[in-house]
Design a protein that fits this description.
The protein is an alpha/beta fold. 37% of the residues lie in helices and 10% in strands. It has a single domain (74-274), classed as Glycoside hydrolase/deacetylase (TIM Barrel). It contains 10 helices and 7 strands. Strands 2, 3, 4, 6 and 7 form a 5-stranded parallel sheet that branches.
């Protein structure tokens, strides 16, 4: 499957993206599937940064994101041979917490991967545009966040299609990977999703259980202590305390010599190492 990308959004849209509106949740009716507009161009804004203050900086990670030679249908970590890690955020975007998270990431030149739900993406397209314009990656996290093991294949398709279309309609970029809610998915589902959509199923190997809201310092320490080469870190930008934990987490890991990459870059490097 080929993936094409639009050029980064205009400066005017970037400004709009900073003005985040509060809106109600979208309908959970997944019976209609909007068409996907044709995509041209490429997002070239990967390296955009705004550096202010004495915080550690992630280096420019000009690594390939081509994982077309990947043979596995799912992944929970990258290669353990290099200090590359991927920071991922689930269940957003959140109009209060995601914009300030993006400020934190931009200040440190960290590019993350956001697994957004379709409902929230449709309600907050301005934040989706900002995520892409600042060089982050967006993945498919379904429309209504269901346990996919309990759904028929057709219902899973509707969940994925409607979320894909909401993302494309917001920013013009196709999601390249997906994460099943709760990490719950049968192997046979992973196989046909990978075959039909080209989505590797992305899980994780560091989970701070931040959804239990243990507090920012606890979340940070769990992420820091659990991280090793190739780790995929799971965080939820839906929660303010999780976002509050990010400066300590990111700064400490950078000082330990880790380098942050997107999930696609991590997968691509693992594919290269396996050859």
């Amino acid at each position: 499957m080929m993936y094409l990308f639009l050029r980064p959004v205009s400066k005017s849209l970037s400004i709009v993206a900073l003005i985040v509106g509060l809106s109600s949740c979208a309908s959970k009716d997944v019976s209609e599937e909007p068409s996907v507009p044709s995509l041209v161009g490429k997002n070239t804004g990967y390296g955009e940064t705004s550096i202010n203050g004495p915080v550690p900086q992630n280096p420019e990670m000009r690594l390939s994101s081509d994982f077309s030679r990947m043979s596995a249908t799912s992944i929970s970590s990258g290669s353990r041979s290099r200090k590359l890690i991927a920071l991922t955020f689930d269940d957003g975007p959140n109009p209060s917490h995601t914009p300030r998270l993006l400020d934190m990431l931009r200040r440190r030149n960290v590019k993350a991967t956001f697994y957004v739900t379709g409902e929230r993406a449709a309600n907050h397209p301005d934040i989706i545009r900002r995520i892409v314009s600042e060089g982050h990656e967006i993945g498919n996290h379904t429309w209504t966040h269901p346990n996919l093991k309990k759904l028929s294949d057709d219902r899973v398709r509707r969940e994925l299609n409607k979320t894909r279309d909401a993302i494309v309609n917001a920013c013009g970029v196709q999601p390249r990977t997906m994460r099943p809610p709760y990490g719950s998915m049968y192997q046979k589902q992973r196989e046909w999703v990978y075959r039909e959509y080209g989505y590797p199923i992305v899980l994780w190997d560091v989970d701070p259980l931040d959804w239990k809201k243990p507090g920012p310092s606890v979340v940070a320490q769990r992420l820091i202590s659990g991280t090793r080469n190739g780790s995929i870190l799971l965080v939820h930008d839906l929660h303010g305390s999780s976002v509050d934990a990010m400066p300590q987490t990111i700064d400490t890991l950078l000082r330990k010599g880790y380098q942050f990459v997107t999930v696609s870059q991590l997968i691509a490097q693992k594919s290269v190492a396996a050859r």
